[in-house]
Specification:
Structural class: mainly beta
Strand content: 25-35%
Helix content: under 10%
Order of helices and strands: EE
Number of helices: 0
Largest sheet: 2 strands, antiparallel
Number of domains: 1
Strand order of the largest sheet: 1-2
């Protein structure tokens, strides 16, 4: 998943930087190979995630 907006007329979803998710990383845990580490990061110019948003990651 990636939402790196570009261009003059594009911007973050609903104009809110906190809703702009950038990357999703998944890798095997270096401490426990039976576990998976998931990291989701948001726009670096946002100060926090949106308190009313639902950030859903579906894993199959």
């Amino acid at each position: 998943m990636s939402n790196h907006f570009t261009g003059l007329n594009l911007g973050p979803p609903l104009g809110d930087q906190r809703l702009d998710l950038c990357d999703l990383y998944a890798f095997q845990s270096p401490k426990d190979p039976s576990r998976t580490v998931i990291i989701l990061n948001a726009n670096p110019t946002a100060d926090a995630l949106h308190p009313d948003a639902i950030y859903r990651v579906n894993i199959d």
